[in-house]
Structures are given as C-alpha cells and as structure tokens.
Amino acid sequence: SRIGQRSDPRFWPLANAVGANWAHRPYFRSAVAHPGQVMMTEPYFSLPDGHHCLTLAIAFEDEGQRLVLCCDVAESNISP
Mean pLDDT throughout 10-38? Predict the structure, then answer.
C-alpha cells in the first residue's frame, strides 16, 4: 500500500527501499533459479505495511538481461 494509506505510521520509514539489495531474499533467489515460474512465499508479517502478505516473484529475460518482478499481495486479498 502507498505510505499513508492503510498502513501504520510506525512502519513508514521501512517503506523507502531505494538502494535495497534483494539478492539475499529467498523468493528473489528462487525466481532467478527458476525463470518463467512464479514463486510464492508463505504469508508473513510485512514490516513496511504492518499487515500480513505474501510475495510473488518471477524472473524473465529482456534484451539479454534477467529481470525479476516481485509483488507483495495483502493476505486479505488472497482466496483459498
């Protein structure tokens, strides 16, 4: 969620991820190891938003570069 919308102000400083290195995240490494496959985490507590969510990640090739797209999904938006 955007800062100030549905998030707890205590966690706002964590929402700015400029310059972050995601290579140590398991979902990022899994996506890189399995390009073209959507990787999904178990639900977890997201510090930037202060809500439970899960992360989807997929790696793909674009103009000779491997890129990884990650998306956090609020647990309330997940149907069984």
Answer: 81
